[in-house]
Amino acid sequence: LTNTNITDAQEMETIWTILPAVILILIALPSLRILYMTDEINNPSFTIKSIGHQWYWTYEYTDYGGLIFNSYMLPPLFLNPGDLRLLEVDNRVVLPIEAPVRMMITSQDVLHSWTIPTLGLKTDAVPGRLNQTVFTATRPGVYYGQCSEICGANHSFMPIVAELIP
């Protein structure tokens, strides 16, 4: 009770398989070009190198004579009223607003992740590899983040604080 003309539609099956694939390729090619164009910046205002250690970050302002400092989490006894527990650090990264900033991120020991969610930044810090992220902040303020990799027993105690000033 089957009609052989209905089950034999190889031309139609070929069309509805190839046509969506062609449409996806036509959408993907310009998107990939735009993705790579937006990822690269040629002339940043600042370049900062961030090195992840267990359990602190080292920052190096490479454009300004190699200014290097460590950023440790503040213990609860040293917090001021209004400071955020487990998120406040002794040395903040100070950056200008409305200027392109390039962050070079690496690690010295294990995998880390330099993450500030309110700025939309998350870049892995891998030992032996230098990763790059570029951002331009538009609003001044203090932005908090943490290492978001499971990099050891105290991995959540690697806060990141960026202070953006005009």
TrEMBL record:
Pfam families: COX2, COX2_TM. Keywords: Copper, Electron transport, Magnesium, Membrane, Metal-binding, Mitochondrion, Mitochondrion inner membrane, Respiratory chain, Translocase, Transmembrane, Transmembrane helix, Transport. One of its GO terms (cellular component) is mitochondrial inner membrane. GO terms for biological process: ATP synthesis coupled electron transport. Its cofactor is Cu cation. It is found in: Mitochondrion inner membrane. PANTHER family: CYTOCHROME C OXIDASE SUBUNIT 2 (PTHR22888:SF9), CYTOCHROME C OXIDASE, SUBUNIT II (PTHR22888). Binds a copper A center. Residues 1-42 form the Cytochrome oxidase subunit II transmembrane region profile domain. It catalyses: 4 Fe(II)-[cytochrome c] + O2 + 8 H(+)(in) = 4 Fe(III)-[cytochrome c] + 2 H2O + 4 H(+)(out). It is a multi-pass membrane protein. Residues 43-166 form the Cytochrome oxidase subunit II copper A binding domain. GO terms for molecular function: copper ion binding; cytochrome-c oxidase activity; oxidoreductase activity. Its main location: mitochondrion. Component of the cytochrome c oxidase, the last enzyme in the mitochondrial electron transport chain which drives oxidative phosphorylation. The respiratory chain contains 3 multisubunit complexes succinate dehydrogenase (complex II, CII), ubiquinol-cytochrome c oxidoreductase (cytochrome b-c1 complex, complex III, CIII) and cytochrome c oxidase (complex IV, CIV), that cooperate to transfer electrons derived from NADH and succinate to molecular oxygen, creating an electrochemical gradient over the inner membrane that drives transmembrane transport and the ATP synthase. This is Cytochrome c oxidase subunit 2. PROSITE patterns: COX2, COX2_CUA, COX2_TM. InterPro entries: CcO_II (IPR045187), CcO_II-like_C (IPR002429), CcO_II_C (IPR034210), Copper_CuA (IPR001505), Cupredoxin (IPR008972), Cyt_c_oxidase_su2 (IPR014222), Cyt_c_oxidase_su2_TM_dom (IPR011759), Cyt_c_oxidase_su2_TM_sf (IPR036257). The chain crosses the membrane at residues 15-36.
